[in-house]
Predict the structure.
Amino acid sequence: MEKSGGPMEGRRSDGEPVAAQTPRFDVVGVVLRVRRQLDLSQRDLARRLGVSHAAIARVEANRNGIDVADLERLVGLAGMRLAVLDESGAEMAPIPPDWVRDNAGRRLPVHLDVRPPDDRPRSRLTDIHYDRAEPNAWYHHRAHRDERRARGLHAVNDDGPTTSALRFEAQRRLRDRLERAASLARRDPILLDDCRCRVDCWEAGDCAADCDCECGT
């Protein structure tokens, strides 16, 4: 437990300070609520949390704050949990822990719109690097991101893909390709041997416009 600070402040792009308008969290009221729920004295609560009686007394007297980890443990004693609400009162979910990472294991920029591997930025359709591993995902820089948002293709509340979601999608596509291949083999085994379709033809279920196989997948 530690001394509480004042409201967070920031600065606008022109250097002017911007004070936080969010009301302060009522720590004292929450501590009192937990004690009442559990029928605990200050000393009882101190023992349950492994802190001194004086620490609890200072918090309730609003002379000391409490860090997030201690507050989380405190409300957990009463079967409660901490949550962050938006301005409408709806609970805001945190970014998933398995938010997709690049091939070096670094988390992709969370402030940009991270997209699945098949949603390539336009710049990469012509600038192809065959000497590099296929990326786990893409992200669009601000200008392209804002253009996509204006067209309704993405929203700020749409999270990027997670590792588990991409793995599930890859398995689904593989199953679809295998099912199409099996269907084609039943229809015309000889045609399957001659098929030169690319992966995107199999994923679409039909030959792409520039496919030189033209088997109809």
User: Anything to note?
Assistant: Confidence is low (pLDDT under 50) at residues 2-9.
